[in-house]
Specification:
single chain, three-stranded antiparallel beta sheet, mainly alpha
Length: 156
Amino acid sequence: MSLQEASDARKARLVALRNRKEGISTVPNGDSVLLSRNYDPETRTLKKHSKNDVLTTDTVEKDIEGVAEKILAEDERQRAQELDVFNIAPKRPNWDLKREMEKKVAKLERKTQEAVHTLIRQRLASQKGQSDDILGAMNAQEKALDVEDQPSDEDE
């Protein structure tokens, strides 16, 4: 192939391309022109052919056409509902306070039980007359005196 023939072939392809863009479908010299069946280079989108061979383009806008209206309708419906305070408030309003206080209360409960046991031991010891503290000893002594005084009252 010479340079002249290559140049003529290129010119023919350019004319065919120009005619195709303008919508003229005549093909010179009976040569077939390569067609992009599924891709449109001008719009850079895919082509879709229906049964009637009508060209339709697939766009994102067509896919999401009804989605925006659905979202707006849902939003309006939610705004129309009254704000219910019981749905917002927790079922147990002081659950966080209870959670934080559990450790402190457990420690205090243990100390309280120890104090109660100590008081019970002191009372038992004071009743027997064996008390370590002064108050318990005084109470035991008063009880002992009362017991001694009561039989003397009965004797008279």
